[in-house]
Amino acid sequence: MSESETPLAALRAAVREHRMPDPPLRRALLESDDTALARQAGKALKQLTVDGDQPRQVEVALLATCTIGSYEPLLRAQLVGAGFLPTLRAADYGTFGMALATGRLAPEGDPQLVSLLMDAGYFLPGDWHAGDPDALEKHVEARLDEFRAQLAACLEHTAATVVVHTVPLPAQVRDGVISLGARARVGRMWYRVNAALLGLAEEHAQVVAVDLVGELAEAAVPARDARLHRYGDMPHTDGALLLLARLVRRVAQAQLGLSRKVLALDLDNTLWGGVLGEVGAQGVQLGGLYPGNCYLELQRTVHRLREQGVILVLASKNDADAVERALTEHPDMVLRPDAFSARVVNWSAKAGNLRQASEALSLSTESFVFMDDSDFERGQVGDELPEVAVVSAAGDPAHLVDALLRQGWFDVMELTDTDRKRPELYRKRAQRGDFSAGFGSSEEFLRALELSVEIAPANEFTIGRIAQLAARTNQFNLTGIRYDEAATRRMSEDPGHLVLSVSVTDRFGDEGIVGALWVERGPDVWRVLNMVLSCRVLSRGVENAAIGWLAGQAREAGATAVEGRYVRSPKNSVAASFWTDAGFAPVASPDGDSAESAPTDFTVAPATAAAVTPEWIALNTRSGFSDE
Fold first, then answer.
1. Left (φ > 0), alpha (ψ -120 to 50) or beta: where does 541 sit?
2. Residue 433: phi, psi to the nearest 5?
3. DSSP-derived 3-state class of residue 390
4. pLDDT in tens, 123-154
5. Are residues 26 and 81 in contact, defined by beta-carbon separation less than 8 angstroms?
6. At 61, is the secondary structure helix, strand, or coil?
7. 84 and which of 16, 79, 443, 557 could share a cystine (Cβ 3.0–4.6 Å)?
8. Any idea which fold 54-255 has?
9. What is the rounded distance in angstroms from the CA atom of residue 180 to the CA atom of residue 127?
10. What is the pTM of this model?
11. Domain 54-255 and domain 441-621 have a common topology
12. Distance (Å, whole) CA 403 – CA 424
């Protein structure tokens, strides 16, 4: 987008040219609080189609207890801002209960997400007696039970993820009760309603609950518009709808693999106040009173992110020895040197340093968030690495934590043990890189690593991690099919299918679950529906060990062939030769389609593929496979 071009003009140009809006423009969509701009942007983007390589697509059904108002264009603008190409389908007015009860959420088929838009009028009676809070409470509880039953019925008919939200209580209801004691009781009743809505996520694996009421408490926007409510049954303001659209977009990011794994941080005026080279370690602002307490709180927040699996990278233009002393010796420092999985401290351009860190970690820069106070540094990274999510640390340091967390870049559907271990896993990966420098060949290095691969059937403890790998793995993703948690669970329970996790350990420690396979088991043919493997274990032969083990199981079961498929994507070229390298032969397409993006099928006799497990890998398998 040029400086003279307005955001709307740039969006319309992208629509005309059948391409996704540029990353800076998408960032502007995410960060803007201008509801009029977001609404117009969402309307302009309704006709967006993309030629060539397709972005991540998402289909969302919208069900509302009221008139949907501007929610559809606001949500579309947020989803495009996150990098999605969305399809939104709004149900007809007045069909909320019927759509839930029947599970008919979209006429064109099952969507990936269902966003429910609810208002207080769904739970409250049309007329009620302020002097009889018992009757009001019974009515609200009955409506809540009815909603629960409708939602449970819906989930029996769909594999979609359903997003529910907490509902603000109208001030006219609260203030219409003049007894202070009774007013408190009505408020307590409504808190129970919202607590029950949040609790639905614990009752149903397919439900995600978001706290719109909590967001409204922090935002300077009114929740309701009395005139629009009476005029057109539109109780929510555009400001409230934009907050909800952001929350639903964050769910889509987490579910469909657009969350980030890495947080790259500047130091001066980001993790501490002041310039280290000018004031020394003893002079930086950290802890104590303002502004030092702001930087301390940011470090505490970053540390909590690390505890939940976010990989930290230090990217600072500074003297490395001075940084080491500050991180080690400053008494208020929360982030000590070992908190960072990679450190790139020098005087080089930060875009190049982020590339260096991504190579050291074997993670794409698409998984990076970069936080810096310098407009120049953020601009340079944004220009050279537009795929990196850029967060500003400029301005009042009191807003640092909000700036980092607001867009939900690190949200996940479920936090797994592997997530919690990830920062240390990647720190050890850097150690492996140093270890490999002392060997004359890659095979010598791999033998010295003492690799062990464990294959295990999916279970209640691993399904979440397996689904997460499906959503977030791009490079070694053979078909691009992203089975979510519900689909993975159903497949794991079906005797005609097999879902496997792949775990790796070596001399440096446990890598955790790094891969997964979804397999259709027939009497004669076992077909690999998809296989994914984390990029951090590529080039070690883990993928060959997994397919070799699977082929051995197919042979024992009496199958005569193992089949697989490769579907090219813009990011999975590293896996293009996997099947042929494992001894599989391509199968001619029945329609003779030779397009570069056409799926390619492969087949092999199980005995042949079983021999591809590398000699340097020890295979460990859990018991129970032969009995399935």
1. left
2. -60, -40
3. strand
4. 999 887 877 888 889 999 999 999 999 999 99
5. yes
6. strand
7. 79
8. Rossmann fold (3.40.50)
9. 20
10. 0.77
11. no
12. 26
**So what's the pLDDT on residue 595?**
47
pLDDT of residue 627: 39
> Dihedral (C-alpha) 2, 11, 368, 501: value to the nearest 10 degrees?
-160
Q: What are phi and psi of 265, to 5 degrees?
A: -125, 140
Sheet order of strands, 311-317 included: 342-346, 311-317, 262-265, 368-372, 389-392
Residue 535 carries which DSSP code? G
- Domain boundaries, given as residue ranges, for the chain: 54-255, 262-405, 441-621
Q: How far apart are CA 21 and CA 30, in angstroms?
A: 12
Report the distance separating Cα 377 and Cα 270, nearest Å: 12
Task: In whole angstroms, give the CA distance from residue 42 to residue 39.
Answer: 5
Check whether 623 has a pLDDT greater than 70.
no
**Among 585, 413, 421, CA closest to 510:** 421
Residue written as token pair 């399809």? 87
Q: How confident is the model at residue 2 (pLDDT cuts 50, 70, 90)?
A: low
Collect all residues with Cβ–Cβ distance below 8 Å to 293 and sequence separation of at least 6: 287
- 262-405 belongs to CATH 3.40.50.1000: yes
The kind and range of the H/E element at 595 are none
Q: Tokens at residue 310, please?
A: 């976010």
Range with the poorest average pLDDT among 211-220, 348-357, 393-402, 613-622: 613-622
Work out the burial of residue 219: count CB atoms within 10 Å of its CB; fewer than 13 is exposed, 13-18 middle, 19 or more buried: middle
What's the Cα-to-Cα distance from 610 to each of 155, 271, 443, 556, rounded to whole Å? 41, 52, 20, 11
Q: 614 vs 128, which has greater pLDDT?
A: 614
| Distance in angstroms (rounded) separating the CA atoms of residues 74 and 296 | 35
**628 has pLDDT over 80:** no
How far is the CA of 469 from the CAs of 449, 503, 531, in angstroms? 24, 12, 10
List pLDDT tens digits, range 342-396. 999 999 999 999 999 998 888 899 999 999 999 999 999 999 999 999 999 999 9
Count Cβ atoms below 10 Å from residue 344 Cβ, excluding itself: 21
Show the tokens assigned to 174. Answer: 């609260």
CB 498 within 8 A of CB 531: no
Look over the chain and give the mean of its residue pLDDT values, rounded to a whole number.
Answer: 89
Rounded Cα–Cα distance for residues 20 and 50 (Å): 6
Query: Tell me: domain 441-621, CATH 3.40.980.10, correct?
Result: no
pLDDT at 16 over 50: yes
Q: Which residue has the tokens 């149900």?
A: 91
- DSSP structure string for 259-303: ---EEEE--BTTTBBS-HHHH-GGGSB-SSSTTHHHHHHHHHHHH
Residue range 492-518: mean pLDDT, rounded:
90
84, 57 Cβ separation under 8 angstroms: yes
Residues 6+ apart with CB under 8 A from 15: 44, 45, 47, 48
CA 149 – CA 117 distance, rounded (Å):
17
